[in-house]
Specification:
Elements lengths: L1 H27 L6 H8 L3 H5 L5 H25 L5 H17 L7 H9 L5 H26 L9 H18 L5 H19 L10
Helix pairs in contact: 1-2, 1-4, 4-5, 4-7, 5-7, 5-8, 5-9, 6-7, 7-8, 8-9
Length: 210
């Protein structure tokens, strides 16, 4: 029981550290994430953090994994509760914008910030971020294909093209909302996606009005 208690406390401490790490990464950049910075934020010693990660790169990779788990919990799983097809695809886009707008992460989106930061930096962190982006497109394309199979998107819809467009709307909203009036930017991003989806759908009544 004592061993189990120590393991549970260690896992809680690790989770709390990663929660703080993804917030810090949106404030100072993933490359700017350091053991000293994280220890100061948590009010703990660096040695306690070294018990979980031996190097900065290990910490960065763990932060990416934790951010992906958070994204699945906050964005993906709630969207997947919607009916299959167009409504589920729209919910995925809308949930992502809502997450950015929530302010839970100061920089808006862990992944967009980190992907911009590491786009020209070869290495394992770059590759893990590229993998995460690829998986996002795989998910969007799957939802688009399902909507086509249900007759809720036209048969000439190109899943890869539409996935790119939806992600582009989201990405633009993420960085422009940090520089321009956020509520207006989110409205633009929602409207752009709705206009595009309604134009491709034989059943536009499934979507909100643009």
């Amino acid at each position: 029981m004592t061993t189990d208690g120590r393991l549970a406390r260690g896992e809680r401490a690790r989770t709390a550290a990663l929660d703080a790490a993804i917030v810090l990464a949106t404030e100072s950049g993933l490359d700017g994430l350091s053991f000293s910075q994280l220890a100061d934020r948590l009010g703990v010693s660096k040695s306690g953090l070294f018990a979980h990660w031996r190097t900065k790169e290990e910490l960065q990779l763990a932060a990416i994994e934790h951010a992906q788990e958070r994204y699945t919990r906050v964005v993906v799983l709630p969207a997947l509760k919607q009916p299959r097809g167009l409504r589920r695809l729209w919910a995925m886009h809308d949930r992502r914008l809502a997450d950015v707008a929530s302010g839970d992460l100061p920089g808006g989106c862990f992944f967009c910030n980190a992907q911009f930061e590491f786009a020209a930096r070869p290495g394992v962190v770059h590759d893990r971020l590229a993998e995460a982006l690829g998986l996002w497109h795989v998910l969007l394309e799957r939802l688009i294909t399902e909507a086509m199979q249900l007759g809720e998107l036209g048969p000439d819809t190109d899943p890869a093209q539409l996935s790119f467009e939806l992600n582009a709307h989201e990405t633009a909203a993420i960085y422009e909302s940090r520089l321009l009036p956020a509520s207006q930017i989110y409205t633009y991003a929602r409207t752009a996606a709705l206009v595009r989806l309604r134009g491709l759908s034989p059943k536009p009544e499934l979507l909100p009005e643009a």
